[in-house]
Design brief:
Layout lengths: L10 E10 L2 E11 L15 E10 L6 E9 L2 E10 L4 E5 L5 E4 L5 E5 L5 E5 L3 E6 L8 E7 L10 E2 L16 E7 L6 E6 L23 E3 L9 E3 L14 E2 L60 E2 L22 E2 L5 E2 L86 E2 L16 E6 L1
Parallel strand pairs: 12-21
Antiparallel strand pairs: 1-2, 1-3, 3-6, 4-5, 6-7, 7-8, 9-22, 10-14, 11-13, 11-22, 14-15, 15-16, 17-18, 19-20
């Protein structure tokens, strides 16, 4: 029992058949009472085979009690079933039925219950970990979900007054991968790795923005990509904000075979490379990091590409993914004529649309009014799970707003857990000696293991 009895100890009844080889020795039954949190041996085995035909446990107490039924073999306890019984409710097992079932206080039969419990182990902290196969029951199947970590957003540029200065580009989202294994094919313990979100680029003064760091991949089966049973790549970091150049590119989304690559601060380079699928004819390719609004960087199971920052009328939002995490939106820039380019929204998981189209991901920050010394607002990171109720992966953070003169550029929003790419930081002018906005951090990855 999970607790001491309040008034009366629950009672039990067991019917069994004693078989020696192929000969029937006897049929018999035992009954008795439980004893609070102390284990009670309801039926002790002999050298013969005991075939249990019926188990009944009746909660005679005045409060609910959690009952655990175990079978001990060679000193190792294996859980058969656990149930919470309200006062006057009973738990039953009959070998001719489909398993365990419960009867209510009026004697009517409740929902029939499965005989196999489920074991869930959640790994949300980055680093090398170990999954241990449960020993309280004999599992048949193991399903594993891996999400790679998001790349950090690039920092905004910091130029002199009268120059085109771009915000930082968004980081790529992490890939989503799910596989089911036969439990008998897995060892008693299996190594795994949870990916770490990439750091956002640090703000700068009178310089091109710092590139965001790449997120790392999550895997199950080992701590090495080449030997892991499955892999979900991390997103690439977003490029830092350019000065005078046309654009800087977002980080690529992670794939099943590799991580997305880092975006560039060069106006002539393509966006960060997408993570590869890892196998022919699969859908685990990450999205290409964006350079302009025409770049399609969506993923299916791979992560969405990060948004690219331009000195056009508006920067580019992060790219979405059907199952992978969304990429971060680009930070706002400042044009030579002292007008602002608006930052981009983060891309959403569960969607194949650009973040600037208004996905329910991190909203881009609002740039300061043109010609006025008013600060922009920090990019809005998506709340965990806000992107879609149908997917596991997180959304990209929004880009930070840009500012002028004596104000620090605003930071990009952090990518949401798990795997969202960080938003790019907002640009600023170096006149006041303050830094541009830092890029938002990418969301950490995860590994979830379900065993039944």
């Amino acid at each position: 029992m999970g607790a001491s009895a309040m008034t009366n100890q629950p009672t039990y009844f067991i019917s069994y058949v004693d078989i020696n080889g192929t000969a029937l020795v006897q049929s018999n039954n035992v009954q008795g009472s439980l004893n609070g949190t102390s284990a009670v041996s309801m039926l002790t085995g002999t050298s013969d085979q005991l075939k249990v035909s019926q188990i009944d446990i009746f909660n005679t107490d005045t409060v609910a009690q959690t009952i655990t039924v175990e079978m001990v073999i060679s000193g190792t306890a294996r859980q058969l079933y656990q149930a919470t019984l309200q006062p006057k409710e009973s738990l039953h097992y009959i070998d001719t039925s489909n398993g365990w079932f419960r009867t209510t206080t009026n004697g009517s039969q409740g929902v029939e219950l499965t005989t196999n419990p489920v074991d869930v182990q959640i790994f949300n902290t980055s680093g090398n970990k170990t999954w241990t196969k449960p020993t309280s029951f004999s599992p048949t199947w193991v399903t594993v979900i891996c999400v790679g970590a998001g790349g950090g957003g690039g920092a905004g540029g910091s130029g002199t007054s009268g120059t085109n200065t771009n915000g930082g580009a968004g980081g790529g989202g992490g890939a989503y991968n799910v596989k089911t294994f036969r439990a008998s094919n897995l060892a008693a313990s299996v190594s795994l790795t949870v990916g770490a979100g990439g750091a956002g680029g640090t703000g700068v003064n009178n310089a091109i923005g710092t590139v965001g760091s790449n997120g790392t991949g999550s895997m199950f089966g080992s701590n090495s990509v080449s030997t892991a049973y499955m892999y979900a790549g991390g997103g690439g970091g977003g490029g830092g904000g350019q000065i005078t150049a046309t654009l800087n590119s977002g980080g690529g989304g992670g794939g099943w075979g590799s991580d997305g690559t880092q975006g560039s601060t060069s106006s002539t380079s393509a966006g960060g490379g997408n993570g590869t699928s890892g196998a022919a004819n699969t859908s685990g390719t990450g999205g290409q990091g964006a350079t302009t609004s025409s770049t399609v960087g969506y993923g299916e199971y791979g992560g969405g590409g990060g948004g690219g920052a331009t000195n056009a009328a508006a920067t580019v939002g992060g790219q979405g993914s059907l199952w992978g995490a969304g990429g971060g939106g680009a930070g706002g820039g400042i044009k030579a004529a002292l007008t602002y380019t608006q930052p981009g929204n983060g891309g959403a998981s569960g969607s194949l649309t650009n973040g600037s189209a208004g996905n329910v991901a991190g909203n881009g920050g609002i740039s300061g009014a043109a010609g006025a010394a008013t600060p922009g607002l920090a990019g809005g990171g998506a709340a965990t799970g806000a992107a879609s109720v149908t997917t596991v992966a997180g959304s990209g953070g929004g880009g930070g707003g840009s500012t002028q003169s004596v104000l620090t550029g605003m930071a990009g929003g952090a990518g949401s857990f798990p795997g969202g790419g960080g938003g790019g930081g907002g640009a600023t002018f170096a006149t006041g000696g303050l830094n541009s906005g830092a890029g938002g951090a990418g969301g950490d990855g995860c590994v979830w293991v379900f065993c039944w």
